[in-house]
Amino acid sequence: MNIMYKSTRGDKNYLTASQAIVKGIADDGGLFVPDTMPKMDFDLSDILSWDYRELAYRVLRLVLTDYTEEELRYCINSAYDDKFDTPLIAPLTVNAKGNFLELFHGRTIAFKDMALSILPYLLKTAARKNGVAEKIVILTATSGDTGKAALEGFADVEGTKIIVFFPEEGVSDVQKAQMVTQKGANTCVAGIRGNFDDAQTAVKRIFTDKELKAELKDRGYVFSSANSINIGRLAPQIVYYFYAYAQMVKAGRLNMGDKINFTVPTGNFGNILAGYYAKNMGLPVNKLVCASNDNKVLYDFFGTGTYDINRDFIVTVSPSMDILISSNLERLLYHVSGSVEKTAELMKSLSEGGKYDFKVEDGFVGEFATVDETFAGIKEVFEDTSYVMDTHTAVAYSAYKKYLNDARDATPNVIVSTASPYKFAKDVLKAIDPKYDGINPFEALEKLSEVSSTPVPEPIKGIDKREVLHKHVIDRDEIKDFVKEQLN
Ligand SMILES: *Cc1c(COP(=O)(O)O)cnc(C)c1O
Question: Is 24 within a domain?
């Protein structure tokens, strides 16, 4: 079946998957969604016999239907290779405290690698298929992990340039060091005085700035996005929900055909939305537990039906989830309401008054964990099993515990584990023992290695000794001029 993509807000253009990937976001500011939900065309038990790449092919061909088999296999094989430190790509660790789907075995040791390792290939292929001659400029606002993963993915990829904006005060020291030391002649990184929402809103504005677009087109550039609003980010994330299911069966923690829960540490709602797509494609999913930190807009939303960003933005120990506007939620609103008019109305209400009302049931549960609960989770799991969770994974762990207290749900659960503990070593150590409070973030890497008897991952070994190559810090209203300058 051929799946076409259209805007969540009513724009009547229907695009192929590859066209939607090049474009990133629709002209009316909406996000691209499939016009019909793809459906699994294999037996569920088949997934037991496929490795990650084969499974990726079987799933992606249903979603990105205008790519040929050769094109898809090229993209998949280029992405999921020895850039990952295990041939399993996304291994499941099971212990007495839970089942952890580890999405942090790629080059930047966080889950964004799962999609951003393949996106440059999907995009390059898409540009070729559609006769795009211009240089593709990737503009990305990041709360920390996307930026680095996108930089790694696109560095020195021919025909592309990448510009990343991150909130100067809103990312961890290690995250910042990873970004500002990025190599690659086509990479550019700037800190923004403001939070992630400021950066994301400014970047979104550029995408819908017709004048700027026309000006740059004349100079041989087109914009695209590596943010999770790009359907080329979302699609590859569907794969690991199937993969997790297969591994749960193999580990004896789930019977083939039975339902499963996933608990997902959530920020921009991209990861968990991919789980929703997997479920709608036919994976037997019971609940998708949406775990938030203290910025619990989504928890309130799923509980009350009111989405309201009129509140203080809280800087927590899980910075990649410090988000008030979860962009991908727009796609869920569209799928649940089935109406572009309704979705456009809700988004208008959000941009004008910072809130809207809409009740979503459909198998989602909102939960949250405070910083104290997050720390308690890390400590408890480490003391009982020696397994070390990062702060984001720990939000999910602690949120799921709360959910179980309320719901007494016996469905086997997978905690989607989104970062290596080394990425947030300082806070992880502090959680394990308060005596590490105030430790230098780079010394923390060695210390965590000692405490946990695990090696410091290659990608961040000696990160503080690398040369800083990107020194820009700008105000959010300077973003547009900055972009123009960079493309001159
Ligand atoms: C991006 C990120 C998240 C949030 O994922 P979304 O898709 O934005 O909801 C959670 N944890 C980590 C470590 C991340 O990098």
Answer: no
Cβ of residue 428 lying under 6 Å from some atom of ligand 1: no
- 3-class SS string, the chain: CCCCEEECCCCCCCECHHHHHHHCCCCCCCCEEECCCCCCCCCHHHHHHCCHHHHHHHHHHHHCCCCCHHHHHHHHHHHCCCCCCCCCCCCEEEECCEEEEECCCCCCCECHHHHHCCHHHHHHHHHHHCCCCCEEEEEEECCCHHHHHHHHHHCCCCCEEEEEEEECCCCCHHHHHHHHCCCCCCEEEEEEECCHHHHHHHHHHHHCCHHHHHHHHHCCEEEEECCCCCHHHHHHHHHHHHHHHHHHHHCCCCCCCCCEEEEEECCCCHHHHHHHHHHHHCCCEEEEEEEECCCCHHHHHHHHCEEECCCCCCCCCCHHHCCCCCCCHHHHHHHHHCCHHHHHHHHHHHHHHCEEECCCCCCEEEEECCHHHHHHHHHHHHHHHCCCCCHHHHHHHHHHHHHHHHHCCCCCEEEEECECHHHHHHHHHHHHCHHHCCCCCCHHHHHHHHHHCCCCCHHHCCHHHCCCCCCEEEEHHHHHHHHHHHCC
Report the range of poorest mean pLDDT among 169-183, 245-259, 412-426: 169-183
Ligand 1 pocket test, candidate residues 148, 151, 264, 271, most atoms within 8 A of CB: 271
Domain count, the chain: 1
- 313 falls within a domain: yes
For residue 305, give the CATH number of its domain: 3.40.50.1100
Q: Which domain holds residue 305?
A: 92-110+232-457
Distance, CA 356 to ligand 1 centroid (Å)? 24
pLDDT digits (tens, 9 = 90+) for 131-172: 998 999 999 888 777 889 999 999 988 889 999 999 888 788
Q: Which of 102, 108, 111, 390 to mutate to test the pocket of ligand 1 (most atoms within 8 A of CB)?
A: 111
Q: Is residue 281 part of a domain?
A: yes
Whole-model pTM over 0.90: yes
228 lines ligand 1 (CB under 6 A): yes
Is residue 198 over pLDDT 90?
no
Q: Does 452 reside within a domain?
A: yes
Q: Is the CB of 145 under 6 A from ligand 1?
A: yes
Contact 423 CB / ligand 1 (< 6 Å): no
